[in-house]
Amino acid sequence: MERMGRGEPPGARSCSWPGLAGGVARRVVAMSEGPLRIAMISYYLPSGSKIGVGYQVHALASELVRQGHQVDVFSNCPPVDGATYGHHHIPLSGSMRTFRFALALRKVDFSSYDVLHAHGDDYWLWRRRVPRHVRTLHGSCFEEALHIRGAREKLRMVALGFSEVLASLVADVTVAVSPDTLRWTPWVRGVIPNGVDTARFHPRPGLQSEVPSILFVGTWGGRKRGAELARIFSEQVRPAVPSAELWMVTQDAPADVGPGIKVLGRLSDDELAEAYAKAWVFCLPSSYEGFGVPYAEAMASGLPVVATPNVGARYVTRGGRDAALTELEDLALPLVDLLQNPARREDLQGRGIVRAGAFSLDFVAAEYVRLYRPVT
């Protein structure tokens, strides 16, 4: 993993731009120390969407505020209850909202901010608007187009993929959340991973359930493949471990999911942290993840991880050294083994806790702050 150092990341543009107004130029100098005024762009937030990018934006903005910076999030979603950062609602209705959100952003005056940090939809913002414009690629829509079902959705993902390419050229500096994501934008070379709040997600000895249990966080349908996990659990895991349960944090499961499967619906952060602490094994057999925050949350919580070898899972688990990676058709084997083998669970638990330290939210936020500040 390539980390951002105190200097400029490879491929980034200089912070000295010809033609900058005198006031803006003075702000570039002032940005080298003291609190920053940060505008974040994210169509998604946890208040209106289950998309993982929204949760990461909420967490990162909250941590930056905790570190003393001023943060405002511009979003189509309503404010998040209890958020410590500012919120600017950009209302939209009808179809093609993600594309129209990008057009609406062109009308926003960002001139009072030191930094514009976009987590999507900034591809029309090519004019200089702030001293520093940062873009995070949370994955690749081109990659997702290979795995998503339906011709219309594939076409939409390809269109969004081209918008990601344009955004990476518009921004002063672009980073991705995992190295393999960079293969679609090879001119981008910086990586800053997504962050996990290790103050919330951490081992809690003594809370583990007496029942052998597998935790899943994601959607029943689509690339998260919750339905496939439920089928494998019913057909192969439960017959081998009759007392086993599958706990599914999902909102789109059908009414009848089968014996031993519990649908937990949508959980708060604290409830999710408790679920990680109680379960024996975590499993997310997604066909594609740009990063996969639930993998890192589970590992930080001391929960052994079983995953399919998607882009994010390979990165977070160091190619399976810190988890069990297997193809979907062989998923039952490591699940049964971990439920029956305490020594194996303990080994992956220790490896996961150490690896999760690389994704601590305070560290990730500090990496971004170094990226926000100009090189002097």
TrEMBL record:
Residues 52-200 form the Glycosyltransferase subfamily 4-like N-terminal domain. This is Glycosyltransferase. The keyword Transferase applies. It comes from the Bacteria. GO terms for molecular function: hexosyltransferase activity. The lineage of its organism: Bacteria, Bacillati, Actinomycetota, Actinomycetes, Propionibacteriales. Gene3D superfamilies: Glycogen Phosphorylase B (3.40.50.2000). Keywords: Glycosyltransferase, Transferase. Transmembrane segments: none annotated. It holds the Pfam family Glyco_transf_4. GO terms for biological process: carbohydrate derivative biosynthetic process.
